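The authors assume throughout that readers already know how a fold can be written as discrete tokens. For illustration, here is how one protein appears when written out as sequence plus structure tokens.
>
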Amino acid sequence: MLCVFNRSLLFVVMLFSGMAMAGHHEASEAEKNLVQVAANNDDFQTLVMAIKAADLVGTLEGKGPFTVLAPADDAFAKLPDGTLAALLEPENKEKLQAILTYHVLPGAISSEEVVKLKLPETVQGSTVAIETDDDGKVTINGANVILADVPASNGVIHVIDTVLLPPEPKE
């Protein structure tokens, strides 16, 4: 579900602005589900590939609503060499599912509301720490929110610049 950017931030903003102004023949982003919105954005190809590998397409295309903390491709590129390739292997499907569901909050939570939550629980079951600095900059577990409130028919996307890793399960 679901992680850098100066050049990429501009690209993402331009891309989403372009999607909003796209021809009237296409459905608006708010009429597309979360997976369709991500798939139609060139900067989320790694995320979409991971969602498919984790067999989470059906869930994220479902009724929801969900809030996806969506790492863009540049966020995945920041992972140590070989990490993404290993996560995409079938034998690591459960770990990939845990990472992706850690990027999903239940409900469609706007940026205005998400900053009030502080420690919301993710679909994965662990919490994320949301902080806002004096300048209004929002971080989630230290990842910068670079674009907020991208609408989808079954939720909302907040773009982040880092892949969030859930805490290791306690034995």
In short: The chain is about 35% helix and 20% strand.
